[in-house]
């Protein structure tokens, strides 16, 4: 039933109230720069599509269910979520340093 599909905005609001993280809806895979920049600002990219019946056992791309049941619960752990933000910050910092070296 349609009402059983998680509402990303509601999930994001609840996540933010509990953890300070928010969800960033995406249609497909993100480039690394965008993904890690989002993490550095406490945004987690979440897929907006649900896998088809043909891909019910395996989907080549992460889908809404993968993110909702596989990743989002872990964001409630400060150790896990702080580590994700740390990784994002490290990537962004490294990319900024690398781009300065090129100029």
* Main sheet: strand order: 1-2
Give the biggest sheet. 2 strands, parallel
**Residue-averaged pLDDT, rounded?**
86
Task: Please give the number of β-strands.
Answer: 2
Radius of gyration, taken over Cα atoms and rounded to an integer in Å: 15 Å
- Give the % helix: 40-55%
| Low-confidence residue ranges | none
First and last CA, distance: 54 Å
User: Helix- and strand-based class?
Assistant: mainly alpha
Helix/strand order, N-terminal first: HEHEHH
Describe the structure.
This protein has 103 residues and is mainly α. It has helices spanning 8-19, 32-40, 64-71, 78-102; strands at 22-26, 43-47. β1 (22-26), α2 (32-40) and β2 (43-47) form a beta-alpha-beta unit. α2 (32-40) crosses α4 (78-102).
Key traits:
single chain; mainly alpha; two-stranded parallel ribbon; 2 strands
Architecture blueprint of SSEs:
Elements lengths: L7 H12 L2 E5 L5 H9 L2 E5 L16 H8 L6 H25 L1
Parallel strand pairs: 1-2
Helix pairs in contact: 2-4
Concise summary:
By secondary structure, the protein is mainly alpha-helical. Helix content is 52%, strand content 10%.
């Amino acid at each position: 039933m349609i009402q059983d599909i998680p509402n990303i905005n509601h999930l994001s609001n609840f996540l933010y109230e509990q953890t300070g993280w928010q969800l960033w809806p995406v249609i497909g895979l993100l480039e690394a720069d965008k993904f890690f920049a989002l993490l550095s600002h406490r945004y987690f990219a979440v897929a907006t599509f649900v896998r088809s019946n043909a891909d019910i056992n395996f989907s080549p791309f992460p889908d809404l269910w993968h993110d909702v049941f596989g990743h989002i619960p872990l964001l409630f752990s400060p150790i896990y979520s702080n580590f994700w933000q740390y990784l994002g910050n490290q990537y962004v910092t490294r990319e900024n340093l690398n781009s300065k070296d090129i100029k």
